[in-house]
Write a structure and sequence with these properties.
The structure holds 2 protein chains of 2 kinds. Chain A has one domain: STAS domain (Transcription Regulator spoIIAA). In chain A, 28% of the residues lie in helices and 28% in strands. A 5-stranded mixed β-sheet of chain A has the order 1-2-3-4-5. The termini of chain A are far apart. Chain B is of the alpha+beta class. Chain B starts with a helix and ends with a strand. The chains are: A alpha/beta, B alpha+beta.
Chain lengths: 131, 161
């Protein structure tokens, strides 16, 4: 009988939440690494806990190297609860959002500075523009 | 009996414990029916296999250009199919990736004879969940499902040009 070692259950790689904290009055969560259904839970928790207390939550995605549909589900969950801004998505993330048709739903900014500088849109997330 | 084994396997998967599901020992599996030693243990391992395969095929990997997009698509389809097998298919029982004239051919086998989770949501409605199969359908050139007595094979072709 082959038993996997216990530490095999821990996803390899660095933690997906690299840092989190208040910057210029907004809550910023910096993600990193590969985000899939095995690794994404800490990021989900970080954003979920930040959403109720912050009008704007910025996800700094500049160090995200891969993401799949579990990441899209997370974005929608958080988007429903606060104004979520995705800062500095790379080529891969931008393509993921576009492929799923969520680039019109989730607000993205080219840089963290741009995401922080935009004034809040008011309570609740705005509906996606048609078309 | 196939149906009985499927129930056992499905029942052993924790609702929120993908790592346990992947790393779970399988002593109850009949000899000869267990996962092949070459089967990746999770989606990340499968992506690593595809990355290495593409690196071997395209030595230009990592350079700027359309290759980045091709690799991204291949890894995303790989990840979605393997995650589906682990989470909804009673476990990943086989995984192969090969380069063909038409592109990257992925074959993902799982232990469930039920159809994959193909429910699609309208992205404009910003639904939670349901994006996995949508991504596979949009990124793969062809997808086929073959049902076997003890599971199924999903074959997906991802263009590499």
């Amino acid at each position: 009988m082959v038993r996997e070692p216990l530490d095999n259950s821990t996803p390899a790689g660095p933690p997906v939440v690299a840092a989190e904290g208040a910057v210029d009055g907004h809550w910023v969560v910096r993600a990193q690494g590969d985000l899939d259904s095995d690794t994404i839970d800490p990021l989900f928790i970080a954003l979920w806990e930040a959403a109720p207390g912050h009008e704007v939550v910025v996800l700094d995605a500049s160090a995200v190297t891969f993401a799949d549909s579990s990441f899209l589900s997370l974005l929608i969950e958080v988007h429903r609860r606060t104004e979520l801004r995705v800062a500095a998505p790379g080529t891969v993330l931008a393509r993921l959002l576009r492929t799923a048709g969520l680039d019109r739903v989730i607000r993205s900014y080219p840089t963290l500075e741009a995401a922080l500088g935009d004034p809040p849109r008011g309570s609740g997330a705005p509906p996606a523009p048609p078309g | 009996m196939n149906g009985e084994r499927e129930v056992l396997r499905d029942g052993a998967i924790p609702a929120d414990g993908p790592e346990e599901a992947v790393g779970r020992p399988a002593p109850e599996q009949p000899v000869g029916a267990g996962p092949d030693p070459g089967v990746p243990r999770n989606a990340a391992a499968a992506r690593d296999m595809v990355t290495r395969l593409l690196e071997t095929e395209f030595c230009v990997l990592g350079e700027e250009g359309p290759v980045d997009v091709v690799v991204a698509d291949a890894l995303l389809v790989t990840s979605e199919l393997v995650t589906n097998a682990v989470r909804h298919g009673g476990g990943l029982t086989g995984f192969t990736a090969e380069i063909t004239d038409d592109g990257l051919l992925l074959t993902v086998a799982d232990a469930s004879t039920r159809a994959p989770v193909t429910e699609e949501r309208d992205p404009a409605a910003a639904s939670v969940g349901g994006y996995g199969w949508l991504l596979v359908r949009r990124l793969a050139r062809r997808v086929s499902i073959t049902y076997l007595p003890d599971g199924k094979h999903i074959v997906a072709l991802v263009a590499l040009t």
